[in-house]
Amino acid sequence: MSVLPTDSLATPRFCGVPTFMRLPQATSLEGLDAAIIGLPSDSGAPFRTGARFAPNAVRAMSIMLRPINPYRGGINVFERLRVADAGDAAVVPGYLEETLAQIETAVRALAQAGLTPFGIGGDHSVTLAELRAVAATHGPLALIQFDSHSDTWDSYFAGKKYSAGTPFRRGVEEGIIDPSHSIQIGMRGSLFAPDDVSQSLDLGYEVVTTDAMFEMGLPALAQHIAARTAGRPAFLTFDLDFVDPAAAPGVQTPESGGPNARETLALLRALKDINLVGADVVELSPGFDQPAQITALLAATVMAELIALRADR
Amino acid sequence: MSVLPTDSLATPRFCGVPTFMRLPQATSLEGLDAAIIGLPSDSGAPFRTGARFAPNAVRAMSIMLRPINPYRGGINVFERLRVADAGDAAVVPGYLEETLAQIETAVRALAQAGLTPFGIGGDHSVTLAELRAVAATHGPLALIQFDSHSDTWDSYFAGKKYSAGTPFRRGVEEGIIDPSHSIQIGMRGSLFAPDDVSQSLDLGYEVVTTDAMFEMGLPALAQHIAARTAGRPAFLTFDLDFVDPAAAPGVQTPESGGPNARETLALLRALKDINLVGADVVELSPGFDQPAQITALLAATVMAELIALRADR
Amino acid sequence: MSVLPTDSLATPRFCGVPTFMRLPQATSLEGLDAAIIGLPSDSGAPFRTGARFAPNAVRAMSIMLRPINPYRGGINVFERLRVADAGDAAVVPGYLEETLAQIETAVRALAQAGLTPFGIGGDHSVTLAELRAVAATHGPLALIQFDSHSDTWDSYFAGKKYSAGTPFRRGVEEGIIDPSHSIQIGMRGSLFAPDDVSQSLDLGYEVVTTDAMFEMGLPALAQHIAARTAGRPAFLTFDLDFVDPAAAPGVQTPESGGPNARETLALLRALKDINLVGADVVELSPGFDQPAQITALLAATVMAELIALRADR
Amino acid sequence: MSVLPTDSLATPRFCGVPTFMRLPQATSLEGLDAAIIGLPSDSGAPFRTGARFAPNAVRAMSIMLRPINPYRGGINVFERLRVADAGDAAVVPGYLEETLAQIETAVRALAQAGLTPFGIGGDHSVTLAELRAVAATHGPLALIQFDSHSDTWDSYFAGKKYSAGTPFRRGVEEGIIDPSHSIQIGMRGSLFAPDDVSQSLDLGYEVVTTDAMFEMGLPALAQHIAARTAGRPAFLTFDLDFVDPAAAPGVQTPESGGPNARETLALLRALKDINLVGADVVELSPGFDQPAQITALLAATVMAELIALRADR
Amino acid sequence: MSVLPTDSLATPRFCGVPTFMRLPQATSLEGLDAAIIGLPSDSGAPFRTGARFAPNAVRAMSIMLRPINPYRGGINVFERLRVADAGDAAVVPGYLEETLAQIETAVRALAQAGLTPFGIGGDHSVTLAELRAVAATHGPLALIQFDSHSDTWDSYFAGKKYSAGTPFRRGVEEGIIDPSHSIQIGMRGSLFAPDDVSQSLDLGYEVVTTDAMFEMGLPALAQHIAARTAGRPAFLTFDLDFVDPAAAPGVQTPESGGPNARETLALLRALKDINLVGADVVELSPGFDQPAQITALLAATVMAELIALRADR
Amino acid sequence: MSVLPTDSLATPRFCGVPTFMRLPQATSLEGLDAAIIGLPSDSGAPFRTGARFAPNAVRAMSIMLRPINPYRGGINVFERLRVADAGDAAVVPGYLEETLAQIETAVRALAQAGLTPFGIGGDHSVTLAELRAVAATHGPLALIQFDSHSDTWDSYFAGKKYSAGTPFRRGVEEGIIDPSHSIQIGMRGSLFAPDDVSQSLDLGYEVVTTDAMFEMGLPALAQHIAARTAGRPAFLTFDLDFVDPAAAPGVQTPESGGPNARETLALLRALKDINLVGADVVELSPGFDQPAQITALLAATVMAELIALRADR
């Protein structure tokens, strides 16, 4: 099995069933370093649904991407790292907790086989399942969360503990996130309650708001993230609403006033020395990304940068 | 409180927060004969989500409708029947069974107060909750189901008993539907399994496929529906995928080859002598109905005809 | 100046600034039999605006059409009738009455020069201006109105006498429509007031509802229209909401349950022996016709059939 | 009557008919400090119509917003300021001057009762009506105008004095704007005539172009605005085309090259010590904001910041 | 390798990379009876491009379809016929003739291995390549063409012989179509030149216009098609513009006034006793099919019926 | 013939068939200094087609622009430079090389008559044809290329030498570009092959990546461009994918992470002392620019700045 993507100078990108970046489909996990896995659930979404269609929407735009990353020395990422597209986890629409269990099972299989999972959400509730799966192999994880919302509320409608708004409180409670090495980046906008400001801090997270991020400067922030997570296996979760709605309109809960795509990619490209053991890109809602699908393209580009970060490990 | 809609010759339709047909909002149930109630859940949807936004999408297009129904003698429907918009039931995204319980509670309040509930879905799973609520007051119900799918499968993903594909098996099992007075109209298209053909018949339903419907003729079918349900309180559920996707593109699970809007409305306008104690219009997915929102307009028009059918009781 | 359209077998349709059917632009009126004129006003619209963009939207799709009409003996319409695109009348947004005056002036210039004007609306209020202009040359007109609404209300918001809902009462009052030779075809749907049913009849119009139209049969109706208007110069106004929203989604005030495109075109192609002195196609709202623009294509096709009807005079 | 918004952690945002930020609907003005009022007119628009649908489009996205504003000390805005949604003013489509009169009447009722009106346009012509209404209570107003165009032309088509392009010349002529304490911010792009550059200056306004704004720096500009308007009751009008089309695509007359959403919100959040007696957000054209509705979300976010500015007064 | 589609009652349809009807991907041709093959070229399109994205757009909606066909005795089509998805042929954008050569090569491999190819276009020029490939194995073919245009022009722009408008003249000239057993169904609309009417007849085709089709009646037409093609291996080509734009908006060259989806499917389901050796569905232009993708759904449904026709052979 | 655009204060912009900026259509070339020419080809596009519709899409939004350019001293551009809209070159869909020949012929006629051609693409392959035409009059050209991709690959699919990805290698090989005075600005994103980095440098171009552009600063870069091209007739080609997809979603091959519209326009407005003999704006794909058409507006604004740059020569 070739482990290189199909060459888009030889056959047009639009030919064939699209896998992520035209990578081969995984027929077994043997010999692989990493795998793409779709997590097509929107059962945890409090606002716009549709993230169940996100994995294939990201794949469809990822065919635009090419294998050489000039921001990390011009390496061919897929010569360094053997990556395949492992398809999607199964889900149970309308049954969030069963869905999380199924996602955990699918991701656990990858992690146990020594692969780094790269998840394509799905709403942000799926990250809890991934964290459970990856922590089972690697122990408590340093979380690097790019997001405009902290997602550390205690419960949502009818007191339910699971939703896209609660995973990073649950993860601390379950001992699978080590908040003392974790950092949340990009918070902004209006809040539900006065103690929203402090709830992440109270859990032990470091919080860098969008305003603070620009005050600190992106290169300094990149270094700071490495320092914060040093010595820990890290999981990076990228909620697309981190980015301003102008550049990422197709998300579940857009929040006006974020960084643009250039700033976002510059930050990710400046990251170094992260012991990345898992990552995801979540919250794409393809129905709100029509017709140009620029959010899906950005999601694919972010994912490609995260794979390059891992290849650079 | 006025019980008549705002007059769209006096103030433009687009002025003000839209209620169904510009009816007054219900501040109490007293003195009302019927109420509109939104059921904004898509937790039961196996394919396209978004029906949580359907109640307000239907309201937004219902402002096109006027109170006089020329197909039932030119009556002013709202002089006959005092109707208000009762807002939406609460729901619990990602928790289908809790959602059904909350919907049942909300609809039960209407039925117990003697009102006829007119529900705006929501995916088709919500109808089970409505049937439970209405049957609690009226006893086992004659079901009149317009739909391209029978929705009588036993279970869906992971063996779950509740979804948009199962309510009309559950309703029979729970004794709230009397299948011997019930009828399913409009089935068509490909099937999952050989016994799909017989599963509704085995439960006791009469089934009229789309092809059979046109062979029988619409006026004869209308008479037949009245005969089938005679002597029973009836609940009419209208799944918008009954209609061809050309006229109803914005649905959860479109099925090519259905009747058009004119045929659909002709059939509904020909219905008479139904002891209607509840009704709903379900499965609108507004994100797939842009920009012209013709499915929402049709949904509103169908609902107005069902209210007129009730006013004509 | 050539009077034939550009040949779309020789240069692709999408080349060049689009005129109606790729006809030449009128540089003078001399030698012309008829002219296309855009009437880009939506100041009379009670619901969806945007008809100001309709003339160019119709032109953009009209490039699909070819000059030979096989439904009238395979004639090359533009060898029979010298037609040019005369551009658009000027309008005054926000000032409906001044807008009507400017439209009247522009159309009057065509009619006085002996041309048959073919207007592309604009909301339906523009037809009053056209009728005034054409009647100035031809005297009281037989009106042939395809429409789902009668547009014969007395006044709209704040008692204003001019709007898309009133022109065919005003036209009778002003003596420019002869209602005894006029006919309204396609009325359907809910009504504002009990006397809506009778208001057109009281003015002297014949009214054929959508239901009546199908009962009568389309060929019989075509003959009946000719008989009704016999002996009078006729103006044919085609409101696109005559057609079902499935086939004409991009209109100001869609009304569910109309004829489809095939039925509509069959009726128009069956018309004969009409002394057509003017016509228009109105109420396209292009923003609601995206992305396929099927309403604009239908509008252009209807207009081409009306020109062929005139060529066949 | 509760004066707090519905809690979106308790019931999902998409439940119920949407008012601005899920605030209560005003049943009387008593006890209120401020009110939201929709101004659904596009009769003054020289280009894209559709702003008549803007008030409800802004409401629909405003449900994303939460009551705590972390940019002004974490205050719960609605504990400081009692605000309700007062519905929409009536309008007369096609009759701009009558429309302005009806809007003035509606806003005057709020101002006279001591409330600060927060208007949701509507094209920019509606601001003249608001200024008339508010000045009747407060006297000549300091205008703070965010806009890419000055809107100080003398007349538009056919010499008409009223349109979205003229209100801020009319306001000075009528003595309801005090230009010596007023400021226009954000002008850019091509111009109609050489004296366009000077026309606002000649009227007495201070003008800060987009380029000048960034040269000055946003914090300095915020201070400057306060100084310019000091000692005067101020009306702030926010035309969404101030923002770059990437972040605000859904406007009447987009102008390339403006600030992004982050810069825009930073400027508004830096404003202090303004004696705000009225404000509006105008020129949203929802049909051009599909499907993600990011302009409506930004409009709602801007409005929430303006209410917070007033609460901070 | 399983030859049955993934069961959509067990795992949700939206899970996994979509193949046609969730069929297995072909890893070899051995043991297969038929194969789906995408033909992603729009280099022959004279109007709307985008058909290069059609194969994956059809796959994406085909996941709605289920394996049991109730219109042919309730057979499980894929128990009768072993079918796999063979991916896409390669193409050379901007070089139509090289593209046709590459398509021919890909389809020839299927036909030579004894498989029936089911092609998903692509614009209609691709059918010439398929005919060449299939005729190489089966000899001159009976063509069954559903289309609103005859596509028998001699040449297009600059005298070029290949385009979506010429394949069925070329096929006769090349001796790969036997016109005396061939039939074109659905022609309608305006024409380029007077001899357009006769050009297909002159080549030897039978032509059934849309009007003639309804006069004859659909069951009679189905029988007639079988009689016309009797004794010959048949290739069925389905141009989606055969259908009215209301039901098939997303096509290259829409033509108002065609049959609806129900009539179309009824005709295909009535076909029997055709010796089908190849088929295609062409001319989908997905960018014009948003957001509901009803044309892609119809395309997939038509293809499923054609596979069932072959299974019923 | 007037050489000034129609005044949009006198007649609304939306009236009349749209030419670029409402300029007169060229009836002859005499007396003109420059001409707009549409180049409606997408036969060279390796990804999204649709650029054939770009010239008219740019015209449709260009009506927003006004003749006075305040960034170059408030000049009325069209009093300095007599410009007309020369319509579109003919093209041969599916035959890229013949298309390039037809475009070259059309542009050569302008250049030979002493006009500066301003081309509206079309995909980027059209620039090669323009360069051939302009170099025939002016000799080897200094190329100023704004683009996120270098477009200097040797060949694309099946070894073909012509495509949107190859023109700037071909131009050097043909001797019509002088690379030693040429500059490529804006490259970014992932690459096909390790030597992608060096291929433009090897050809002799100067390359300024997006990152380098911001490090250098926009005013310095503008000066540097003038210095690099000094002494040579210059052709400026603007590929809209230079801009970030947030501001230019409607392009053939979007690339995340570019400059925004304000930065882009600032750079163009800072350009001076360029001996501009031709220019184009390419790669708009209007189907992906709906509904707000902000890419088309930006394309028109860029073109207006390029005309102003020429007027300032």
From TrEMBL, chains A, B, C, D, E, F:
Keyword Metal-binding on entry: yes
Cofactors demanded by this protein: Mn(2+)
Keywords: Hydrolase, Manganese, Metal-binding
Keyword Metal-binding part of the UniProt annotation: yes
Database matches in SUPFAM superfamilies: Arginase/deacetylase (SSF52768)
Note accompanying the cofactor annotation: Binds 2 manganese ions per subunit.
GO biological process: putrescine biosynthetic process from arginine, via agmatine
Example GO molecular function: metal ion binding
Binding site for Mn(2+) 1: D147, H149, D151, D239, D241
Residues annotated as binding Mn(2+) 2: H124
Family: Belongs to the arginase family. Agmatinase subfamily.
Protein name: Agmatinase
Species, as recorded: Ancylobacter mangrovi
